[in-house]
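Possible regression after last week's pipeline update?

I re-ran a chain I had predicted before the update to compare outputs. Posting the input and the new output here so someone can diff against the archived version. Not blocking, just want to make sure nothing changed silently.
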Amino acid sequence: MTLKFLGIIPNTPTDEFPTIWLHEETGDLLIQSYKATEDEVKACQEIGSIPGHSTDVPDHETIIRLPAVMLKYIPRPDDN
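New output (post-update):
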């Protein structure tokens, strides 16, 4: 597996460090960030996504909260 570091929130404390990496073979993003709070997860479940999809979060998935400042590190189709 080949990962490429994309970014970290600048000036983060040494015990907090939301980070984004790119899996170069698949194009997937690996994101380390803050866990969504119980209230945030409930709100996501109340809103749902598309008809017919469960609002449960499977054991192998989680909901994270990505700080807006991290959006600049997400690759766009026109990035080369």
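Follow-up from reviewer: compared with the archived run. Residues 8 and 17 are 7 Å apart (CA to CA). Marking as no regression found.
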